[in-house]
Automatic annotation (TrEMBL), chain A:
Transcription keyword on record: no
Subcellular location per the Swiss-Prot or TrEMBL entry: Gas vesicle
Similarity remark: Belongs to the gas vesicle GvpF/GvpL family.
Protein name: GvpL/GvpF family gas vesicle protein
Lineage top rank: taxon: Bacteria
Record lineage: Bacteria, Bacillati, Actinomycetota, Actinomycetes, Kitasatosporales
InterPro entries with a match to the protein in the record: GvpL/GvpF (IPR009430)
Sorted UniProt keywords: Gas vesicle
One Pfam family linked to the record: GvpL_GvpF
Length: 237, 144
């Protein structure tokens, strides 16, 4: 049976695993595989494991519990080693590197921020700023046959939305970065203009939250921020 | 503005209602060990498709044009700053509801799929992307 790997911690982590539930149904009990200065938190991998909601939540819950007790390197969901011996072997081989990363991330948590702009608000702003957009809007409103104008309007607006989103993402990132140790941006997707993770020292969590709140207030109505955390430092391992 | 602050993917009154917002972190980031294998994520394609392709499509242009045609230009924009509305410990539904529009069609469908499936913990949290909300919805249905 293969071994499901949740996280890597220091061997001196309390590793209170008894009350935690692993992936699978019924949930697999957890155990630690130790190799020198580092340990891997593992369980048996249930046969036919896939990314079911229950299992993704189990993975995340185990990591959050471990994180609360000390530095934890979160594994990506679904990582399987052949068996405990092989896990120990790999762990031992790269122990210095893991140890170094544990030291770096000790006392840090991840916060994930998604920011969206109210679309109507943004479209009004684009209209206000562009005579061409207003003209195309007038023509397409009154003439159902104005197909080319409709496409031209949509293209103009799409370009503006993308440019404004990117500029805003840059600005917000720049304003928040002093409150975090590191940050990692990724593709925002179609619903948001900003998708970014921050690595924040636990000691300065309050000032980070304050900075996010101030930025949301500065941008005002028409913007929606969703901040999730503290999370295991997925984006910084 | 709205700031929704949520503690984690697994806590909170709605059970694991916030999972959607961190799914990509759990499934697509985190440490990997090259020598090991990963379970199949078939049916869960993280949104790696190039969003620019979706944005630069005739479908999107037409939706934007329609959205512009519907605007009430007389009433103008909202005042830049009004009463602060900080909502603590809410699920993501509060924020998502406000950001619907022409662009959000495709991802909205994915989100719908996820939320629908989330009612049954046996199901996989799917995130299928497609070029338009129509085809996304139909592909989501096929998965069920």
């Amino acid at each position: 049976m293969s071994t499901y790997v949740y996280a890597i911690t220091g061997a001196d982590h309390p590793l209170r695993l008894d009350d935690l539930q692993g992936v699978g149904d019924p949930p697999s009990p957890l155990r630690a595989v130790t190799s020198g200065p580092v340990a891997a938190v593992v369980s048996d991998a249930p046969p036919g494991l896939r990314a079911k909601r229950r299992d993704v939540v189990a993975h995340e819950s185990v990591l959050e519990a471990l994180m609360a007790d000390g530095a934890t390197l979160p594994m990506r969901f679904g990582l399987l080693g052949p068996d405990d011996e092989r896990v120990a072997e790999v762990l031992g081989r790269d122990a210095p590197a893991y140890q170094e990363r544990l030291t770096e991330l000790d006392g840090h948590v991840e916060y994930h921020l998604k920011a969206a702009r109210d679309e109507k608000d943004m479209l009004l702003e684009i209209m206000e700023g562009s005579e061409q957009a207003r003209e195309l809007n007038r023509r397409t409103r009154t003439d159902p046959g104005a197909h080319d104008e409709r496409i031209a309007l949509g293209e103009l607006v799409a370009r503006e939305v993308a440019a404004r989103g990117e500029a805003q993402a840059e600005e917000t990132t720049k304003r928040l970065s002093p409150a975090a140790a590191r940050l990692s941006r990724s593709e925002a997707g179609a619903t948001h203009f900003l998708n970014v993770s921050f690595l924040v020292p636990t000691a300065s969590t309050d000032s980070f939250l304050k900075a996010v709140r101030e930025e949301a207030e500065r941008l005002g109505e028409g913007y929606n921020f969703t901040l999730t955390g503290p999370l295991p430092p997925y984006s910084f391992v | 503005m709205t700031l929704v602050q949520q503690s984690s993917a697994t806590s909170g009154g709605s059970g694991s209602g916030n999972l959607y917002d961190v799914l990509e972190l759990i499934l697509d980031r985190g440490l990997v060990i090259d020598a090991f294998v990963r379970v199949s994520l078939v049916g869960i394609e993280i949104l790696k498709i190039d969003v620019r392709v979706v944005v630069a499509s005739v479908d999107t242009y037409l939706r934007f044009a329609e959205a512009c045609n519907r605007l009430d230009l007389e009433s103008g924009r909202k005042a830049p700053t009004q009463l602060t509305d900080i909502v603590g410990d809410m699920t993501e539904s509060g924020a998502k509801g406000k950001s619907k529009g022409a662009l959000s069609g495709a991802v909205e469908a994915i989100s719908d799929t996820l939320h629908r499936k989330s009612e049954d913990s046996e199901e996989e949290p799917s995130r299928r992307a497609a070029r338009s909300s129509t085809s996304s919805r139909s592909s989501a249905k096929r998965e069920e």
